[in-house]
Amino acid sequence: MSSFDTESRRSAIWATDARKIAAGRSADVWLEKTGQTEREDISHIEAVQWGIKLQDVIGREASARMQMELKEADYELRHPDHNWLASHFDFISADGKTLVEVKNYNQAKRNKFDENGLMPHEDKAQCVHEALVHRVDRIVLAVLFGGQELVLIDQHISEKEKNDLMQVEAELWGQIQTQTKPQALSAEDAKKLFRVSTDSVAFSSLQVEQACQQLKAIKDQIKKLEEAEDQLAGFIQGSMGEAGTLQSFDGRVLATWRSAKGSTRFDSSLLQKEMPEVYQRYMRETTGSRRFLLK
Question: What is the pTM of this model?
Answer without folding.
Answer: 0.77
